[in-house]
Amino acid sequence: QVQLVESGGGLAQAGGSLRLSCAASGRTLSSYALGWFRQAPGKARECVATVSWTGAIKYYVDNVKGRFTISKDNAKNVVYLQMDSLKPEDTAVYYCAAARSLSTTVGLISPSYWGQGTQVTVSA
C-alpha cells in the first residue's frame, strides 16, 4: 500500500507561482514512480509531470514545459511540483499519483494509487 497526501494548492494570479507537495508513505515506495495529474471541469484527466523513484527520469506534458518543475526529496519521501508563470488554463484539481510504470512520452502508466486532490485556481 502507498499513501499519498497533497498540499499547497490555492489561488494565484496569472504569471504567479504555486508549489504543490505530495507526501508519500508505504513499505514499497521504491517500486513506484510518482507524478502529478490534473483535471479541469469538463476535461479529461491528464498527466502533467512525473519522476522516477531515483529522480533520473522525468516527464512533462508539452503545455507545462519550461514552466513547471517536478522534484523529489528521497529523504523525506516528498514530491514537489513547482508551478511558475501560471496561466488561467492551469486551473484544475491536481492529483498526486504513484505507478509502477513510467513512460517518457506519456508519463505515469495506470497509476495504482492516488491522492485526494488539491485545487489550483489561476485568475486572469
Describe the structure in your own words.
It is globular, with a radius of gyration of 13 Å. It has 124 residues and is mostly beta strands. The chain has no helices and 13 strands. The strands form three sheets. Strands 2, 4, 5, 6, 9, 12 and 13 form a seven-stranded mixed beta sheet that branches.
Give the end-to-end Cα distance, rounded to a whole number of Å.
40 Å
Question: Rg to the nearest angstrom?
Answer: 13 Å
Order of helices and strands: EEEEEEEEEEEEE
Proportion in β-strands: over 45%
Question: Would you tell me the structural class of the helices and strands?
Answer: mainly beta
Q: Mind summarizing the main beta sheet?
A: 7 strands, mixed
Q: Kindly state the percentage of residues in helix.
A: under 10%
- The number of helical runs is 0
Low-confidence runs (pLDDT<50, min 5 residues)?
Answer: none
Mean pLDDT: 94
Please count the beta strands (DSSP E, at least 2 residues each): 13
